[in-house]
Amino acid sequence: MWLWFLTGFLCFFSMSSYADNTLSTQLNEVDVIGKLDQARNSIQPSLGATDYYITSDQIDGQSEGNNASFNQVLLRAPGVAQDNDGQLHVRGEHANLQYRINDVLLPEGLTGFGEELDTRFVDNVSLIDGSLPAQYGFHTAGIVDIHTKSGVFTNGGDISMYGGSHSEVNPSFTYGGSAPGGVNYFTTGSYLEDNLGIENTTNAPSAIHDQTQQGKMFAYVSKIIDDTSRINIMLSASHSDFQIPNSPNGSPFLDSAGNPLPLPFEASSDVNDRQIEQNFYGVVAYQKSLGPLNYQLSAFTRFSEVNYLPDNIGDLEYNGVASTINDSILTNGLELDSSYELNEHHTLRAGAIFTISDAINESNSLVFSDSGSGVNGAEESIKVNNQKQGEQYGLYLQDEWKVFDPLTINFGGRFDQSYGYLNEYQFSPRVNAVYEVNKDTKIHAGYARYFTPPPLELEQNANPAIFDNTTNAAQIDKNSPTKAERAHYFDAGVTHNFLPELQAGLDSYYKIASSQLDDGQFGAAPIVTPFNYSKGRVYGTELTINYKKGGFSSYANAAYSRALGRMWSSEEFHFTQADFNYVSDHWIHLDHDQSLTASAGVAYEFSGLRCPALNNTKVYADLLFGSGLRESVDFPNNKRVGSYNPINMGIEHTIKLNDKNDIKLRFDVVNVFDEVYELRNGTGVGVAAPSFGPRRGYYGGMTWDF
Fold this sequence. Notes:
mainly beta, 22-stranded antiparallel beta barrel
């Protein structure tokens, strides 16, 4: 149905603008694309929010460059904390990130280890957070706004081979160009194989049972219809296989009588758990610019699937349950965003989004009967099959009001409704003010009301009673449904240009939440489940500095954050009775709360030197610092894991073969001083296993640009 609607919409606007198109001045292709890109950017500005911008050149000057995972790129932005299993936390929030590609929403997928977004297709990326304008709804911890490379500006490609420590092999390619009729295209593909697919569960240099194979493809095609309109198509596919890493000398599960389960012995280092992840999405977007009116209509679809395949004997022996899990979600949707320049003082923006999702959660769990006097009999199978359709609707309207020359106020609101296991809705006012003290200094402040539904694909709608009197029995026989988080968010900051080459920014935020969302891994399968704290408080401050002059560039970011919650109000059966009683009467740190987070980097590219061997050579170094996530010692999340600050370095040299062909040689050292650091120690709310950062690794590669 939505495809018919989109087709009719495109036909209508193509016909209605025909007379105007025939009279328009014909521009060259580069000018048209630049004009349409500028018009698209005007539809969704980040006015009043905090916007951290990263270019492809900056990515190239970071550790491993575009061979690094996309999460590693985001970790160089302010206020982004690293977690295990490829998770990120922005400003003390749980996942809650919204990804947009060329200003089109990328629907949610099942979270896991594989990152379907390939750094190679990124032209630039912005992390937008703080008090967000009204066009951003549902997931609001941060907007990851990616603009892809485009064939008209690329006009060529590269073939690369990269690899090194942990048996890493990572071939890739990119190619882009233009075709007659206003068509330009860009595509990239990569394959990764190594023995450090997730994280090491020990402090040893090599992980046990941690191999991965990952394949990714992305394609972008744009067709210019005329000087004022175009159609963009994006397609992506990724497939990842993971071994789940093991720890040696594991403690066996004991039944209610204190005895190990009646199973053949299997060493914990030999357990063979695996996980398979698949993600596919497609986007068709039509953009039109009619003088003061700009709009973009998009249709999108995404399928995401995670399969967890346990080692039945091993999982039963060490966890008391072995669950085969097959979770998937299919989402289709439509999105319309528009802007209209009413006059020199007012620019109106309005839009709508609709998504419909089908989520499937299937599991087959092997357990032993245990009624309180120990295991009795052989293992038995308990099957669960949940299927749920969910819908989300969002509408927004806002006005960018230039009150007078230095002051701009952006105010409006949005209405969101979510149908899932619960039917919830909210009207959310938004207001931001930006005051230009002078050409070098800007002050901003804002307020936003947020409404964040829980991720449908991760909600289990479980009945804990089905595991009563088994080795997977819960202490609390209660499972309230997960609710949408509702929050008041305040943000204020200042940016200042000390020099044309030196910029700095300071920003502070405070969030008051009810039904504060969080997530955790509560079983052997590394798949997270959302739950609520009845109340939440999140606040902090960020400082960012950037300097660039000639071939030298540098950045430094530091952030302080506090994230607290009180009283679990959903998914109660996952917790022990003692922890539940404590959290009901006390504020605790959220498990992902990290007080101090920092990143810094420098890069220098040599040019114009008398020594030809040094010209076209780039050297770079960067570091990440974290004061440590939370662990449970005396009560939930009361202590923190130790701090860490690994340093990475590298060098890249370009050999100019001719005007069109280059060869780039790259060498990277990750964790130069071989720092041993722990991200998780296996304790904390929703934390199932220990996790260490990578030890020192040596990587190198060659890229042929053509």
